[in-house]
Amino acid sequence: MCCSGFLKIMMFIFNGGIFLAGVAILGVGVWVKVDSGSLLGLVEEVDGAPSGLSQLSNVAYLLIAVGAVLLLIGFLGCCGAVKESRCMLLTFFSIVLILFLVEVAGCGAVRLRWFGRGSPWSARR
């Protein structure tokens, strides 16, 4: 029984960190979307900053989406661990599994796109 209590606390702590990271990323995304002028002002003050950084305000939607997903994952993990809710934990696991599969598929697509089938990286040894 001690192990299950420890796992519950650890799952709460780690998912709480994910939740807080989601809040921070979501907050930055909303800030960039609402007040992109102040962000561009900060970027212009940096010495030697590349000129392409003015496109940074276009990333707001991506930050909002990533922050919202992390917020949802962290919430489901925390509440599911504390309440021992099978539905919340199953939803948490399903979202994490889908994200993992998308990452693996993305890595495979990048490998095929950049290295191709005839590259030394794909040759059998």
User: So what's the overall shape?
Assistant: flat
Rg, nearest Å:
20 Å
Distance between the termini: 50 Å
> What is the helix/strand order?
HHHH
**Tally of DSSP helical segments:** 4
Estimate percent helicity: over 70%
Secondary structural class? mainly alpha
Report the strand count.
Answer: 0
Low-confidence stretches: none
Strand content: under 5%
Question: What's the overall average pLDDT, rounded?
Answer: 84
Q: How would you characterize the largest beta sheet?
A: none
Secondary-structure blueprint:
Elements: H1 2-34, H2 36-45, H3 60-83, H4 86-115
Helix pairs in contact: 1-2, 1-3, 3-4
Describe this structure in words.
- Helix 1 crosses helix 2 (36-45), helix 1 (2-34) packs antiparallel against helix 3 (60-83) and helix 3 (60-83) packs antiparallel against helix 4.
- The protein has four helices and no strands.
- The relative contact order is 0.13.
- It has a domain at 2-83.
- The protein has 125 residues and is mainly α.
